[in-house]
Structure formats: structure tokens, C-alpha cells
Amino acid sequence: MTASRYAAKPWVALLDDAQRAPIDPADSLVRALRRSVAEAPDRTALAYFDGRLTYRELDELSDSVAGHLAARGLERGDRVAVLLQNSPAFVLALFGAWKAGAIVVPVNPMYKAGEVAHVLRDGEVAALVCADRAWESYLRETAAGSPVRIVLTACELDFQTRGDARVLTFERLPQAPDADDLTAVARAGHKAPELPGLAPADIALISYTSGTSGTPKGATNTHGNIMANTERQSRGLPLPEAPVYYALAPLFHITGMVCQLGACLNSAGTLVLTYRFEAGVVLEAFAEHRPHYTVGPSTAFMALAAHPAATREHFSSFVNISSGGAPVPPALVEKFRAGFGPYIRNGYGLTECTAPCASVPPQHEAPVDPASGTLAVGLPGPDTVVRILDDRGEEVPFGEQGEIVVRGPQVVPGYWRRPEATAEAFPDGELRTGDIGFMDERGWLYVVDRKKDMINASGFKVWPREVEDVLYTHPAVREAAVVGVPDGYRGETVKAYISLRPGADADADTLAAYCKDRLAAYKYPRQVEILPDLPKTASGKILRRELRSRAHDQ
Predict the structure, then answer these.
(1) What's the pLDDT tens digit per position in 223-278?
(2) For the chain, is the Cβ count within 10 Å smaller at the N or the C terminus?
(3) β-strand pairing of 385-389 with 402-407
(4) What is 29-197's CATH number?
(5) Which residue intervals of the chain bear CATH 3.40.50.980?
(6) Where does the AMP-dependent synthetase/ligase domain start and stop, copy by copy (predicted)?
(7) DSSP string, 451-483
């Protein structure tokens, strides 16, 4: 058998000594939290508008949540679903569940009843932590047909007094008779149960995928998976002592969980939370807290750049800004740098590899492939192997496209109780991502597109990303998404959905002609539709599947 060209890890030569160094992480974020408590008990761990929780308080309050859950009969290995936005309540529920020996199931609070019901049943969830208004409006009925037997509700007005009406648009409800109050439980002073320590192989999270290819599946992120990426994230960024992280990505998403919450607490830093994304609120938080690091989707940076109050000063404290969820178009990176100063560094990962498996180190800028114009998403870590395979499962040479596959300490062992899906996606423990990309000889990884998103126009392959990258170079374009739509003559044809920058003036014909001048005839969009906003996931990723459905319904 021919030796793997990728096993040589050419990317390691581009990493610095700290990034190449072997890691010996703590066994879990619970252990990392307690280490930070010992180092800096009175340092602010969480900042929530005008509220502050120190490391000592975070540890004690989550101990009390753990003690309450254990007293209510929660056992080691039971599942606890958490449906909350970026607030201290989320962090208390997370660590309380882990300290009780449970597995956390983070759930998007924007999910509808049917989506939540699937997660509660599939994960055999024993306990539910959610917002009080969600419990009253739909979750009580949803949970009634599930294994849930313990309910804690949270009012996310707690732990602050500012009450910013732009995001905190709700009122406190009377405590439900069939649920316990998370804040009261946290302040009750319960002692955490004395349990054997969490092991790296123990499941920490069951993270349900977005379900782009059928029913959502639960990726089983272990404590070791989380800590491997948390340690790499902490060591790979030259942040100051007591760093300040801003939680731009939602904590229920694996990127927010690892790259913000995990890396911050592992570094004894301060995590700034502002409930959910609202551009004006975010900019004011930047000015108030002067964060050193944040990570978010490219759509969030587009929204921040488009806000009329945004200035270079808002971003002047940042040492590093990363983007995840989808590759950043090169035009956006340069527009943002020209307007505000920071260089946005790409990152690439999936839920199944516990957030990043490649990122752009702080000492580098991502190269742009001269042939395709694609911006590199980063370099793998020293303990990760990324390979590119053809349809027969054989390695392709550097520079050639194929499916991206990943092996490393961040790759999950499989899907929750889905042995067939696990065998298909993780042959011999290696993750088949379903993403198409290539790697250059130095080890830079480039993502072309999702396998399933490829458009077949008269037999020619069109990757939506290539068309989107061209659209982003137009000064009027704020957001762009390209999908294939049925066409009687070509089989499929290219359609672009666009949202415009504030004050911009461009019509569909102008944008189609712009692409026609810059792309092969079979690639440019024959149809262009301009919308006020494009549909997105809670983590900010543009939903091509919704746009594809919209096109089919028209």
C-alpha cells in the first residue's frame, strides 16, 4: 500500500512552537473550571450586561444546581436538555448537569415543538432546562409526551438589571407549579454530589446536527473531544492574561461551546454574554468590555459592518477575530479590514469534530487559491490528519478536489444510538465530512462546497461557493446564496438570492450581468432574486435548503 501523502502533515511546519506542542488537557471542563477557581476566584467569569459572576460564584451556583438535580433523582449518564440563549443560566445549567454526572443535550431555543419533541425522544432526555416563557408557551405540552421527569425554568432577566429592550423583550412570569426555578435552585446552597471524576471518554454532549440530510442525528462529543479543541484554542491564540472573550456565536452551538465558553474558562478569562445577536447591542458591548477575541459566522460580521454606528474603535481591542460556520468570502475579509482594521481568520469544522479541525493561525493570513479564488479555511493542528479522497476512497494529489476526511482527538466516536449512520460516517474512526475541498502542498485546506449542494447545469458542475464569492465582490451585495433550481432545458440552472447593503441600489439584471462578466457561461446565475434578508440558522449560517425549497415552490 502506498504511504499516505497527508500523513506527513506538511502544515505542521507552518505552526509555531506553542501550536506544535503536545497537549495534556484536563479530563473535562469541570476540572478546568475548578482550576480557574483556584487561580482567580474573584475574577469575573461571566459578564451579562451590567451583571457579573466571579469564578467562585459560578462554581458554587453550579454546584447547587448539580445537588438539586441529584436530589431529584438524576443519575450519572442521564440526559439533560438545555434550551437557552447566551445567558448565565445556560452556563449554570451546563455545569450543574455535568457536575451531576449527566450528559447535556444543547438545543436551539428557536426550534419548534416538533423539532424539540424529536430531540427529547431520541435522546431519552430525563431533565429539561428552558426559559420560563418557552415552558408556558409550548414546551409543557411538548415534554408531556417525552421521557422528561425533571423541569427547571429560567428567566433570562436574572443576573443583570439593565434590561436592554432591544434583546430582552420579555417580562418575568410567575413561577410554574410544575417546574423549579433555576436561579432559586442555584442560590439555595446545595452541595454537588460526590461522584467519580468525568473521564475523557465519557460523553459530555449530544449535539444534534441541523438535519440537512434527513432527521437530525446526535453527535456524541466526549469530554476528551471538547478538551482537545479547548486546549488547542487556548494555546493557539496569543491573548493576554485574563483574556476577555465575547460570545458572538450561540453557546448551544458547538463553536460557541468550545471556542468561546471552553477556551475562556480554560484560560481563566471573562466571557461577555448579551443574550442573542443584535448588531447595536454587540457594538456597545465591544466598547464597554474591550474583548480580545470573538468567533462568529460571516453573516454576523456583515451585519456589524453594515450598522451605521460601527467604527474602527469598536474593534480596536481585538487581538484575534475568527469566523466559523461557513467559509468567509475573500471580498468580505478585505472589505472588513479596510473599514474596521481586523483581519477575519477563517476556521473550519463540524459538530462531528467538536468545532475546529483547521484554522488560520494568528501569525498567518489565509492564502487565496489563484485558480479558483477560494480563500483557505486554515491549517489542521499537529495532532489532526486531514485527507482528501476521491469517489473510490483513494487519496488525491495535493491541489485536486475530493471529499474532506478528518482524523484526530476532536472527532466524535459516533452518533447517539445510530450504529449504521456511525459506520457510514466514521469508517475506522475517520470522519467523512461530505464537504468537497482540496489541500495545497504546504498544508493549507480549502473548502469548495457541500457535496449535496453541487449544481448540475447541462452536465457541468457548478459549486455555489464560487458564484457567491464573485457576488460578494459587488459593492451593493450584503449577503448571497446560490442554489440549483429545476430547468426544463438545462436540467438545473443557477439561481442567486441576494440581500443588499443599506442604501445600496442594484437590480437583478445588474447583478446577473456582473457575474456573467466574471464567470463561465454555465456558471453565472440565470435567475437573481433580491430579498430583505436571507434565512439563517441560529448560528448565522445561511440556509440554502430553505432557499432551494422557496425556488421549487415558486
Answers:
(1) 999 999 999 999 889 999 999 999 999 999 999 999 999 999 999 999 999 999 99
(2) N
(3) antiparallel
(4) 3.40.50.980
(5) 29-197
(6) 34-416
(7) GGG-EEETTEEE-HHHHHHHHTTSTTEEEEEEE
